[in-house]
Amino acid sequence: MATGTPGSTARQLPYQMIHYARRRITFADNGLTVDVGTLPAGAVILKPLSGVAVHVAFNGGTTNTLDIGPSTDAGTDLWATILALGTIGFIPLDEVVTLLVAADTKVQAKVVSTAGASAGVADIIIAYIPNNDR
Description:
By secondary structure, the protein is an all-beta fold.
């Protein structure tokens, strides 16, 4: 049964299809590092399909940003740095150094929205293809 909480193990269906990890964030997550999900070893990240879909623009003054990366990256910004959350739309990852995940990898994101924000809703989406063609 779906719980709405990211799992601690990598999700992988036995079919050759695109998988994804998704996490909703809001302006209330300001300053938090949130868990998005875990990608399985050997997965390939689909950069053009991965990023953040902003549904309600964040209105925290001049700073409304998001960093995304593996939990091993101290700043969680190895895959995306300072993605703008102040405008509705889809903002793709901008920093992915390698698209191949060598080991099971927890994905995290850091939300920054200046104090006083009262609006902002978005979904972080990381699309990937697992290594299940064996």
